[in-house]
């Protein structure tokens, strides 16, 4: 199925390191970012053009937040005919711009619908690395103007990692051929099935995909297919609920709407974690690997997977055994990877599989120093640096490791 290109969503993007004048209106006495000529290729040269803007803060490696607001693009020298133009973007005070500091990284991207994405990340963070990779931009240099590019119509098709990052910044997308999934999901009418059943159906409806042939490709294919199925079913269910409305007599039931909105958001987050575990389980079964899933070790910790079994784990001495292995499975790492370190005290070398692209070198360095081996499906590893890829494992590496122990 067609997954589209970056140009289907964004016309172009630029990145710069914020100076004190850019980020601190107390110093500059104004809320403005200087716009260089390269950025005008997709921002245009309409004096005092007002944009709708999605302001996003992705500081450090934590979850971010966003604010919808406006910005004005204008030429400060419009009345000075003998001087070259000097373009600036005026931004208002809001929760996101209030967090900006000198040294932070600003990504300014123009969506196909004309909206601007004004994204702030911490320098050197995972979020910065991911967006540089997604937009194909070089790291910004302090004191220098925007580095920017327009996106070609025939660029590379968006892969799993790219769609992951787009989703993180709130870009909604649906496969142009998503209606072909209706024959698969019609059996559920207007209800969500259990994650186990949905994952199984995703695998059964891709009979040509076999974990035995390529576990990395199979895992991503199953996840991708299930995600498309889920989005299609979700759109149907949510659309129906919105049509019914949230009126109670002559009043609008705001609390019901908020609860419904939160349930949609939470279902998306929780479902991906279970989906990942379900498909990993199918990979281990395909290779006849013994395991236990979600069993208690000590102090009520529950590793996602224990090999060969929880019985073997409890029978092993406190010092551990080379025959024991554990695997944590997290669709996103952020700072949660540290939780894995305490989940099976008898196993000194931990393994963690994630779908998160482009984790920063600083964070993967901390993982390695903590005795944790990160596992990233092969195709997602393209978003990591060459140095990181020398250390990373893919799923096939892990399966072969289990077969040897």
Structure description:
With about 400 residues, the chain is α+β, with helices and mostly antiparallel strands. The chain folds into three domains: about 160 residues, DNA-binding pseudobarrel domain (At1g16640 B3 domain, Beta Barrel), CATH 2.40.330.10; about 110 residues; about 110 residues, Restriction Endonuclease. The chain has an eight-stranded mixed beta sheet with strand order 2-5-4-3-7-6-1-8. Strands 11-12-13-14-15 form a five-stranded mixed beta sheet. Strands 9-10 form a two-stranded antiparallel ribbon. Strand 3 and strand 4 form a beta hairpin. The longest helix has about 35 residues.
Topology:
Elements: E1 10-17, H1 20-23, H2 25-28, E2 32-35, H3 40-43, E3 49-58, E4 65-75, E5 87-90, E6 105-111, E7 116-121, H4 126-135, E8 147-150, H5 160-168, H6 182-185, H7 195-204, H8 215-244, E9 247-248, E10 251-252, H9 254-286, E11 292-293, E12 305-307, H10 310-315, E13 325-330, E14 350-354, H11 361-369, E15 372-375, H12 386-391, H13 395-404
Helix pairs in contact: 7-8, 7-9, 8-9
Give the tags.
eight-stranded mixed beta sheet; alpha+beta; 34% helix; 3 domains; At1g16640 B3 domain; 19% strand; globular; 405 residues; 15 strands; Restriction Endonuclease
Spatial strand sequence of the major β-sheet = 2-5-4-3-7-6-1-8
Q: Helix/strand-derived class? A: alpha+beta
The number of distinct structural domains comes to 3
CATH architecture of the largest domain: Beta Barrel
Secondary structure tally, helices: 13
The low-confidence runs, each spanning 5 or more residues with pLDDT under 50, are none
CATH class of the largest domain: Mainly Beta
CATH fold category name of the largest domain: At1g16640 B3 domain
Main beta sheet strand tally, sense and closure = 8 strands, mixed
Could you report the average pLDDT, rounded to the nearest whole number?
90
Spell out the CATH superfamily of the largest domain: DNA-binding pseudobarrel domain
- Strand element count: 15
Our estimate of the beta-strand percent is 15-25%
Please tell me how large the radius of gyration is. 24 Å
C-alpha geometry: globular
The run of helices and strands is EHHEHEEEEEHEHHHHEEHEEHEEHEHH
């Amino acid at each position: 199925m067609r997954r589209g290109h970056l140009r289907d969503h964004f016309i172009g993007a630029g990145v710069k390191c914020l100076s004190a004048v850019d980020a601190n209106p107390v110093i500059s006495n104004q809320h403005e970012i200087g716009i260089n000529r390269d950025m005008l290729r997709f921002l245009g040269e309409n004096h005092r053009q007002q944009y709708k803007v999605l302001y996003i803060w992705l500081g450090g490696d934590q979850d971010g937040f966003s604010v919808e607001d406006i910005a004005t693009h204008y030429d400060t020298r419009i009345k000075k005919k003998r001087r070259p133009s000097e373009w600036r973007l005026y931004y208002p005070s809001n929760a996101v711009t209030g967090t900006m500091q000198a040294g932070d990284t600003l990504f300014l991207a123009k969506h196909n619908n004309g909206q601007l994405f004004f994204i702030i990340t911490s320098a050197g963070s995972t979020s910065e690395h991911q967006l540089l990779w997604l937009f194909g931009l070089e790291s910004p240099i302090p004191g220098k103007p925007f580095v920017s590019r327009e996106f070609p119509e025939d660029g590379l098709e968006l892969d799993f990692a790219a769609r992951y990052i787009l989703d993180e910044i709130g870009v909604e997308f649906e496969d142009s051929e998503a209606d072909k999934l209706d024959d698969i999901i019609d059996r559920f009418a207007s209800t969500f099935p259990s994650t186990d059943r949905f994952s199984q159906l995703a695998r059964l409806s891709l009979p040509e995909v076999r974990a035995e042939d390529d576990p990395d490709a199979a895992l991503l294919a199953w996840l991708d297919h299930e995600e498309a199925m889920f989005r299609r079913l979700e759109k149907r269910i949510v659309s129906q609920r919105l049509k019914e409305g949230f009126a109670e007599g002559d009043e609008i039931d705001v609390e019901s709407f908020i609860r419904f909105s939160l349930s949609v958001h939470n279902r998306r987050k929780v479902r991906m974690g279970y989906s990942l575990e379900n498909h990993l389980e199918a990979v281990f079964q395909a290779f006849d690997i013994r395991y236990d899933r979600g069993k208690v070790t000590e102090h009520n910790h529950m590793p996602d997977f224990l090999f060969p079994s929880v019985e073997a784990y409890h029978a092993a001495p406190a010092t551990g055994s080379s025959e024991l292995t554990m695997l944590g499975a997290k669709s996103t790492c952020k700072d949660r990877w540290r939780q894995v370190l305490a989940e099976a005290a008898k196993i000194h070398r931990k393994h963690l599989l994630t779908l998160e692209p482009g984790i920063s070198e600083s964070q993967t360095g901390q993982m390695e120093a903590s005795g944790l081996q990160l596992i990233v499906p092969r195709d997602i590893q393209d978003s990591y640096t060459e140095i990181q890829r020398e250390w990373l494992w893919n799923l096939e590496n892990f399966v072969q490791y289990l077969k040897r122990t």
